[in-house]
Each structure stands twice: as structure tokens, then as C-alpha cells.
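Hi L., both proteins are below.
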Amino acid sequence: MTTLPIGLLLGALVCFIVFLVRAEAQPFGEQCLDSFEKGREDFVLDTDDSVKYGATFIIKPKVESTNDCIRSCCKDPKCNVAFMENGSGEGMIKSCFLFDCLYKQQYVCRFVRKKGFLNYIRDVVYESDLATKNLPGEVDNPPEANGGPDRVVQPQESLTLNGNESKDDHDIVTYQWHLVSGNTSAVIEVENIDTFSFLVS
């Protein structure tokens, strides 16, 4: 019977283990990237609305590339949405944010238009129709006007309202101010496109 030197057997075993490690590591990176669908560009997660409806912020990993941001999401089984701010070079990013956008089996994340951002959604969520209604750019939702909290003023006092908390899933083109109820003798003066003042007589 032929015998092999122990050193030769150990060397072959080490080479086999290294081969297995490399074979497993490479598919993880590739499979990870393949398991995400790219969303619409120039849309960012509306974090306030998303969290209000049940989305969970996971982490902001310190990575510098799109692929590394996605890989960070792959490492967390709860992560299904990664959104990031574009960097100066191709494939480079300024920041990366990971979210769990499922709450009670419902996709609860909302997106708004903002230049310079991109997002990736895990394909099992993207393809399951859970995200269909809220995919960025799929629908044009009505804008949400917000002139600030209710205010109480006395006669001869002036008041300035600001609409910069208003939002839309597309760009806000213009603001229109109207007195819909109350004292019709109030004098309205538009200061800027998103602010106006009025004097209560």
C-alpha cells in the first residue's frame, strides 16, 4: 500500500481549506449585490413618515462606496432598504443609511424627491408587491401643505407664517396663500414665496 508523507497531506488540506474560504467569500459579495434592486434615482427616504408608520432605522455604517453600503445591509437580516448620498466619484458615496421598512408584513417606507440620493431595495421585498405602492416615483401623491402650528393673535398684531415644512414627493413649484376662514379684514402681505404676513384689524 502506498503511503503519503504527513507534510504533503497537511499541505493539501490547508490548500483545500483556503480554496473553500475563497470560494464561499466571493459568492457572498456577488450574491449580496445581486439580491438588491436599484430604486429610482434622486429620491430619498422620508424618515419621519417612514418611522411614524413603523419603519426602523438600523445603522449608519462608515462606508465609502455603494457596494459596501449594500454589503452592510446584507449582513443584517432585518435590513431591506439601503439609501445613500452620492459622492464625488463613480460608485462613491458620502453617507449610507440602513432601514427595515417592513412592519407587520407591510411595506411602510415613503420616499420624497431629492437630488443626489439613491436607494436599493432587497429584491424579495421589491418583487413581493409589498413595496409597489410606495416605490419612489411610481405615483404622484398630493403635496402636504404645512403653515406651522395654530397661532392666536390679538387685534392690531401681525403674524408671519412659514410654509417651509410643506413637502411633496416631487419638487414644490410654487406656494399659494389664501385666507380660507376667519377675519376677512386681515391684511395679507406675501414676503417670500414660502412666507407671508398678515395684520389682524
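That was the first. Here is the second:
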Amino acid sequence: MTQQAAMLLPMIVMIFLTFGVMLWMLKLRYKAVLKDGLDPRYFRLYNHVELPEYLLKVTQHFHNLLEIPPLYYTAMILLVALNTSDTFYVLLSWAFLLSRLAHSYIHTTSNKLKWRKNVFIISMLILMILWVRVAITVLYL
């Protein structure tokens, strides 16, 4: 496997994680409507109804996967466009994936705020280091 492929594989896993959470959320939405009596009109404007906790956690996490990870995807795509990869980029990419997997697990299971916050901070620091390194790379092209 090339360094570039090793750097991009975590991005592909993140994308499939997002798809997985999206499908899980869809399944839970059907459950909430069919078994727990959630009025399907809720999904027109997403307001004025309290969601079951099981659906709320997964929905919030799906939204979370659409907030921070696009900054990671953008960095990876930029590095590919610049034909740039090295061991440090590979390590940062895998570290970001692992931190986000841990965040996903915590957020959708126990949802312990202290653990979730710490893993979130770690993932943000990794992302910041990645972008500082990308900026330095771009400056020295």
C-alpha cells in the first residue's frame, strides 16, 4: 500500500461510518414512528416534538459527523491534489479516524460527557495539527 493510500483509507472508513450512522438513524426513525408513536409530521420541520432519547442521540451524532469531519476530508483531498503524503500525514489521518470512532462509540452508547468531551478535544487537536502542517506544506511548494 502506498503512503497516499494509507493516508486516504481512514477517510474512506470515516465516510462509511457516516453512512452507517445515517442508516442507523433512518432505522430508528421508523421505529419511533411505527412502534413508539412519533408523529411522522415531525420530520417536515423538525420541531415541537420531544424525540425518544435513543433517536435523539443518534440524530445528534449524525449531525456531528457532518460538522467537523468535512475539514478532515478537505485536507485529505488537498494533499492528494498536491500529490503530498508522508508518514506523519498517515499517522495524523489514522489518529483522527481512531479518535472519531471512539467519539462515535461514546456518543451513541453511554454518552458520558467527560469522555466524549476529551475524545472530541483530542480529535480537534489532531485536526488542527493536520491543518497547520497542510498550511506549511502549501507555503513551501
